[in-house]
Write a structure and sequence with these properties.
This protein has 404 residues and is mainly alpha-helical. It is built from 15 helices and three strands. β2 and β3 form a beta hairpin.
Length: 404
C-alpha cells in the first residue's frame, strides 16, 4: 500500500509541477519576447509616461500593449501579477524531490557505493539548495553583477561545480535532479525575494504619488528576470533527463550536463538577441557543434574482444536468464516484489530468454555501460555478472541474432 500511495503522490505532484512549469516558462518567454519587441512610443504617448508599445494579433483579436517608464499616474483597478506560477512550480518540484528522492533515498538518492546514510544525504540536499541561493544572491549584490559577461561565466562555472559535487555524493540521476532543484531555487528566489518586492514598491509609489521611486530597483528586477529566462532551457532538459541514462549514467555526467546547458544557453541567447533586433546566426551552428561533438564523444563503445567471437563458447540461455531473473526481475516482472513498484518500470517484463534478448540493447546500456541498474544495485549484481552480460551482448550482436 505504501508504494501505491507513493506512486499516486508522484503522479499528482508531477502533473501539478509540469502544469505550473508550463505556465511559468510561458510567461517568462512571453515577457522577455515582449521586452525585446517593444517599439518606441509616439510623442503623445510618451507624454503620458509610456516608454514603448507593441501591437499583436492572437486568436480572434488585436492587442495593444504599452509599457510605462515606471507607472501611470493612476493605477487601474485590476492589476495582474505573475508569481503563483513560479511558487507552485517550485513547491511541487520540492514535493517531488521529497516523494522520490527523500522517501526512496536508499534507491534513488544514494549512489550504489555511497558511504552516506539517507539522513546525511537528505541534509546535504536541503542545505546545498539554501547555500546555492545565498551564494547566487550574494553575487547579484556584488559589483560583479554589473559586469554581465563575467558574471554569467562565474555563475555558469559555479553551477557546473555544483553538478560535479552532486555527482560525487549522489546517484547520477539524483545529481541531475539536484542541479535542477538548485537552478529552480535560484529562479523562484528571484521571483519571491527580488522581482515581486520590487513590483510592490513600484505599485506603492504609484498609488501614493511618490515620484522618488528609484528606477534602478526595477532594472535590477528585470535583470534577475533575464537570469531566469536563460536558466529555463537547462532546467527543462534536467526535468526530462531521467529518460536518458546515456547522460546521467556516465562517469562524466556532470561534464555532459555542462555541455548540454551551454548549448541550450546559446539557443536562448539567439532568440533573446533576435527579439532585440540582432540576428546572431553563428549561435545556432555553435550549439549544433556542441551537441554533435557531445553525441560523438559519449557514443556507446563496444569492449575490445580478447578472443574472436567464433572461438568463444556459446552462452547458455539458462545462464543469462538466471542472472536477469535474480538481479532484475524483482522490478521487471508482471508482479514486482520490490516494494517501490506496483507495476514493472517502463512496462519492461523479463519472464523468459526471448523477452530478455529482445531488450538486449537496453540491458547492456543500463547494466554494463552506465551501470545505473539494478537500481542502487539493491539486488547485488556483481562485476562478474555485468561482464558476462557484456560478453553475451557482444556475441549476439556479432552473430546478428538474439542468441536463441
Amino acid at each position: 500500500m505504501e508504494s501505491y500511495l507513493q506512486e499516486w503522490l508522484n503522479l499528482l505532484f508531477r502533473w501539478l509541477h509540469v502544469t505550473a512549469g508550463v505556465a511559468w516558462i510561458g510567461a517568462s518567454f512571453y515577457f522577455n519576447w515582449l521586452e525585446g519587441r517593444l517599439e518606441a512610443a509616439p510623442a503623445d504617448k510618451q507624454k503620458k509616461g509610456i516608454k514603448g508599445e507593441l501591437w499583436a494579433l492572437h486568436g480572434g483579436g488585436i492587442y495593444e500593449v504599452n509599457k510605462y517608464h515606471l507607472a501611470p499616474e493612476k493605477l487601474p483597478t485590476t492589476l495582474h501579477w505573475f508569481k503563483w506560477e513560479a511558487y507552485v512550480t517550485w513547491l511541487s518540484g520540492m514535493g517531488l524531490l521529497a516523494i522520490i528522492y527523500y522517501w526512496g533515498a536508499e534507491s534513488y538518492l544514494l549512489a550504489a557505493q555511497s558511504s552516506l546514510t539517507p539522513i546525511q544525504a537528505i541534509t546535504i540536499s536541503i542545505f546545498s539548495l539554501l547555500a546555492g541561493w545565498l551564494i547566487y544572491d550574494g553575487l547579484c549584490k556584488s559589483p560583479l553583477f554589473k559586469q554581465e559577461t563575467l558574471f554569467s561565466l562565474v555563475l555558469f562555472s559555479l553551477i557546473v561545480f555544483a553538478a560535479w559535487g552532486y555527482a560525487q555524493l549522489f546517484s547520477g540521476r539524483a545529481a541531475y535532479i539536484h542541479v535542477g532543484a538548485l537552478i529552480g531555487t535560484m529562479m523562484v528566489g528571484n521571483v519571491f525575494r527580488v522581482i515581486i518586492p520590487s513590483q510592490r514598491k513600484l505599485v506603492a509609489a504609484a498609488e501614493n504619488g511618490d515620484k522618488s521611486f528609484d528606477p534602478n530597483i526595477a532594472q535590477h528586477a528585470l535583470l534577475r528576470s533575464r537570469h531566469n529566462n536563460y536558466l529555463t532551457l537547462p532546467l527543462l532538459f534536467i526535468m526530462i533527463s531521467g529518460h536518458y541514462a546515456m547522460t546521467f549514467g556516465s562517469e562524466w555526467n556532470w561534464a555532459i550536463l555542462a555541455v548540454l546547458a551551454a548549448a541550450s544557453v546559446l539557443v536562448r541567447h539567439f532568440f533573446n538577441r533576435r527579439n532585440q533586433g540582432a540576428i546572431l546566426t553563428w549561435l545556432w551552428p555553435a550549439a549544433a557543434v556542441l551537441m554533435l561533438t557531445l553525441a560523438f564523444i559519449i557514443r556507446p563503445q563496444m569492449a575490445v574482444q580478447q578472443t574472436p567471437v567464433a572461438e568463444q563458447p556459446a552462452f547458455e540461455q539458462s545462464e543469462i536468464v538466471e542472472i536477469v531473473t535474480a538481479r532484475c526481475s524483482t522490478c521487471h516482472s508482471a508482479t514486482p516484489t520490490d516494494p517501490l513498484f506496483q507495476s514493472p518500470p517502463g512496462g519492461l517484463v523479463f519472464h523468459d530468454y526471448d523477452s530478455i534478448a529482445n531488450k538486449a540493447d537496453k540491458i547492456y546500456s543500463q547494466t554494463v555501460q552506465t551501470q545505473i541498474m539494478p537500481l542502487a544495485n539493491r539486488t547485488g549484481m556483481t562485476d562478474e555478472e555485468r561482464s558476462l552480460l557484456g560478453q553475451w551482448y557482444q556475441q549476439i550482436k556479432a552473430n546478428g541474432s538474439n542468441g536463441s
